[in-house]
Amino acid sequence: MSSVTQALSRWLGNKSSAATDETNPSQARLLRHSTGLTEFTRIISAVQGLSVLDLGPTSPANIRYLTELGHKVYNEDVLSEASRPELQVKGEDGTVRFDVETYLKYNLIYQPESLDAIFMWSVPDFLQEALVKPMMERLSAALRPKGIVLGFFHSKASAPAIPHYRYQISDGTRGMLELRSGQPHKLQRVFNNRHIENLFHDFRTCKFFLTQDNLREVLATR
Questions:
Q1: pTM
Q2: Interval 24-39: pLDDT, tens
Q3: Which structural domain, as residue segments, surrounds residue 10?
Q4: What is the DSSP pairing of strand 215-221 with strand 72-75?
Q5: Secondary structure of the chain in the HEC alphabet?
Q6: How many domains in the chain?
Q7: In this predicted structure, which of 103-112, 118-127, 186-195 has the lowest mean pLDDT?
Q8: Would you say the C-alpha torsion 42, 46, 52, 58 has a positive or negative sign?
Q9: Based on CB atoms within 10 Å of each CB, which residue in 3, 42, 210, 211 is the most buried?
């Protein structure tokens, strides 16, 4: 088992089961149960023809699962796009800042109230501080009334030692996710419950799901 997989197994408190990717035996994967995903799936399974946005890396498994439910899928790898070096610009005083304006000019462009559901995963935990609030404003404006967002948030002060992982839907009805090694994004912060509620301040509800590992699952309804 690789050091990355061992770290993830310790992080999950050995609650998940390890397996091998049949298409790439050298790449280990871990299965994790998600109550938030179960609830998310229950909502989006009630009607066909929804517009669903996945903010993680492109995942054939996620695309297949959502299209089989009869939905239209959009995908934006927010963290990878935000990590582009040209978005780090130097000001007149010599300080380096993240170019939010340029990022938003080319990313997260959706018509108002055009989306029904968003997989946000753990993106806010790893995103540059300057982009967190603008991203949430874009997502909020793009969601239709009663639209939903599923987000995961680290809950331990020691969480910065945990690398970023990709989330793939294994069985949405049972809330099973495959956690795979992702790009080397650095954890930027650990939100407390009040901070999370502030992220969704203009949403009607913000439901927390308790877990036995170091993630808090949140299902927010616009």
A1: 0.86
A2: 433 557 899 999 999 9
A3: 3-221
A4: unpaired
A5: CCHHHHHHHHHCCCCCEEEEECCEEEEEEEEEECHHHHHHHHHHCCCCCCEEEECCCCCHHHHHHHHHCCCEEEECCHHHHHCCHHHEEECCCCCEEECHHHHHHHCCCCCCCCEEEEEEECHHHHCCHHHHHHHHHHHHHHEEEEEEEEEEEECCCCHHHCCCEEEEEEECCCCEEEEEECCCCCCCCCCCHHHHHHHCCCCCEEEEECCCCCEEEEEEEC
A6: 1
A7: 186-195
A8: positive
A9: 211
Q: What gap in Å lies between CA 143 and CA 204, rounded to an integer? A: 12
CATH of residue 197: 3.40.50.150
